């Protein structure tokens, strides 16, 4: 085998990577239920069901099944949600699986049809790439447009990805060292302190933002411009000294002063300001692992490991984390 061979993404890969890929392709035989054909059917048929009439704009995207057994989906608004990219991202994962493990995808689904569905959904919120309504651009665009570019090399997908990265950089303030996550927040039993009309009095940054940094690193790889990676690294460094507590639990929200000093640490969706919000802890584990992979920095990797250790330490006997 040649030292450099093309993989399914059209990229070059080493012999070691090919060996790893061969091992990965053996996983379905070991865990057959994870690669059942029915998975592809569920995703593609939901995509067909909710795409609406041909030519009509998509205004809502399937997000999760409605409880009580109706088998219908709650659909989020494309103009205001932060999860728009998840569903088209799932459709792209079906296409990736079709290329790697065609036996694990319904044989009647062509690559052309799968990609058409993915692009139809992601096209519906492309307009959000140029002007970020909040920090969630990585969630919106890397999962779908990023997969589009990785699998097809489509230049339009690359352009949208870079546009989204530019819109994130616009949220960055050097004096604070972070991208602003929210322009407002309402907190139960608290005065209305965080409003859009007093932005000079608060600067809200949430732990979730670590999940959007990888798109910035990717933008530097795609363009050669270091500014994206620099912003991502500054954000990770800032959160390391503000969102991450000494015991390696995490705060959900940090409100900074305009000079970058910490004004208040709190939660918005967790149990209490000083509790460990399970989803936020997960954001931090994954986010710092991604930053470590992109930068090679040992402190980011060590942080990810210690955050994970703390997560396991706090799990109840059931192994299911408290919300």
TrEMBL record:
Organism whose genome encodes this protein: Cryptococcus neoformans (strain H99 / ATCC 208821 / CBS 10515 / FGSC 9487)
Keywords annotated in UniProt: Hydrolase
GO molecular function annotations of the record: chondroitin hydrolase activity
Assigned protein family: Belongs to the glycosyl hydrolase 88 family.
UniProt-listed PANTHER family: HYDROLASE, PUTATIVE (AFU_ORTHOLOGUE AFUA_7G05090)-RELATED (PTHR36845)
Protein name in UniProt: Glycosyl hydrolase family 88, variant
GO BP of this protein: polysaccharide catabolic process
UniProt entry tagged with the keyword Lipid metabolism: no
Keyword Cell wall biogenesis/degradation: no
């Amino acid at each position: 085998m040649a030292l450099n061979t093309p993989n399914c993404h059209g990229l070059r890969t080493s012999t070691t990577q090919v060996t790893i890929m061969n091992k990965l392709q053996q996983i379905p035989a070991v865990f057959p239920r994870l690669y059942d054909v029915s998975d592809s059917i569920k995703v593609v048929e939901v995509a067909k069901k909710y795409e609406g009439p041909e030519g009509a704009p998509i205004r809502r995207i399937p997000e999760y099944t409605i409880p009580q057994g109706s088998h219908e989906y709650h659909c989020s608004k494309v103009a205001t949600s932060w999860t728009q990219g998840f569903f088209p991202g799932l459709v792209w994962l079906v296409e990736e699986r079709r290329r790697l493990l065609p036996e694990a995808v319904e044989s009647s689904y062509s690559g052309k049809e799968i990609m058409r569905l993915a692009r139809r959904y992601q096209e519906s919120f492309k307009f959000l790439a140029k002007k970020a309504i909040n920090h969630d651009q990585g969630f919106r665009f890397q999962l779908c447009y990023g997969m589009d570019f990785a699998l097809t090399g489509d230049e339009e997908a690359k352009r949208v990805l870079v546009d989204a990265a530019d819109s994130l950089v616009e949220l960055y303030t050097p004096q604070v060292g972070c991208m602003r996550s929210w322009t407002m927040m309402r907190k139960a039993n608290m005065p209305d302190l965080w409003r859009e009309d007093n932005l000079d009095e608060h600067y809200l940054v949430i732990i979730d933002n670590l999940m959007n940094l990888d798109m910035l690193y990717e933008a530097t790889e795609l363009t050669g411009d270091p500014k994206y990676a620099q912003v991502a690294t500054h954000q990770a460094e800032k959160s390391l000294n503000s969102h991450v507590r000494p015991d390696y639990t995490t705060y959900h929200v940090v409100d900074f002063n305009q000079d970058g000093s910490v004004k208040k640490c709190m939660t918005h969706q967790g149990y209490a300001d000083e509790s460990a919000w399970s989803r936020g802890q997960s954001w931090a584990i994954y986010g710092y692992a991604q930053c470590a992979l992109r930068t090679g920095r040992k402190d980011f990797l060590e942080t990810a490991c210690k955050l994970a250790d703390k997560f396991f330490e706090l799990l109840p006997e059931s192994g299911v984390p408290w919300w």
